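Students often ask what a holo structure prediction actually looks like on paper. The answer is less mysterious than it sounds. You provide the chain, you provide the ligand, and the output is a string of discrete structure tokens encoding the 3D arrangement of the protein together with DTB.
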Amino acid sequence: MRHDWSLQEVRQIHDLPLLDLLFRAQSAHREHFGDNKVQLCSLLSVKTGGCPEDCAYCPQAARYQTGVQAEPLLQTEAVLAAASSAREAGATRFCMGAAWREVKDGPQFDRVLEMVRGVKALGLETCCTLGMITLDQARRLKEAGLHAYNHNLDTSRDKYREIISTRSYDERLQTLRNVRAAGITVCCGGIIGMGESPDDRCALLAELASMDPHPESVPINLLVRAPGTPLADRPPVATIEMVRMVATARILMPRSMVRLSAGRLQMNEEAQLLCLMAGANSIFFGEKLLTTGNPEYGEDMALFARAGISPLEPRP
Ligand code: SAM
Ligand code: DTB
Ligand code: SF4
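The corresponding structure tokens follow.
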């Protein structure tokens, strides 16, 4: 397990002829997984829209006219009902997202803690993504039974400045350290398709792989070009670029769960399968991510069946 990849080394892997890259990624994958199992995760926006941040990709930022309606924090019962149906449908991980800049102590955070306790009691891996958190808040989440915290670096340190101005890369890293220090597993990844260079993508992967331990979970998102956001008119990237990103993540962080996250609606079946072959071993299922679309459950299951893939079973 290495934590000292140079940008150049990562670029060399990333730029390999695709078939060589796939072979290496698949070999790394089989050493640690290779059982034709893909984890099904369910995502729920527990607090939608109205976010004060300026993330250029995000339909939930209040400052862009995206048509996303701001809604108050959901009631715990509604969240637990959704978690329960997700479990019925085969999910083993349930992720709750809030369009917050940061967590504020008080009744809303207390309600999120209650949601975490409830989801955990259903036997699901619990994950939250709530923006920046302090060490104390991370400890309270851990105490409530939180398994993972998602906080993405999104892109390279250089590119980040063009995408988000309302908080820094270092603040992101501080939250990740708080999560780790509290004993919660780290879910951290990024987005491609925002106009970043291959070096930016590789710098992000090198940054993730420099963490010791590696993030247990690495979501790779393909930009969903949401109307009204500054990135709405970005040209689409070839899906092979997703395959390269996933494969490189798999090679650098062989034990991590690599998640084929946003953007699957823009990928055909074959492209998604290539990502699974490149080492992705998890998807979000259900017709909606947080606010944007995702393939239909039936289609995902049909694809799994055709490919002889089965959902990862819950851990005993
Ligand atoms: N507000 C919290 C935060 O930013 O950390 C949590 C929710 S935020 C929506 C979680 C992640 O979703 C972002 O870090 C970003 O990587 C991803 N995301 C948001 N909008 C996206 C889009 N249009 N396409 C792809 N990924 C997106
Ligand atoms: C992540 O990396 N991708 C998920 C999850 N973490 C929270 C979110 C994707 C959001 C896509 C845009 C939307 O649906 O609003
Ligand atoms: Fe807010 Fe998170 Fe969207 Fe940024 S990514 S605007 S912090 S909800």
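The domain at 7-308 is CATH 3.20.20.70 (TIM Barrel).
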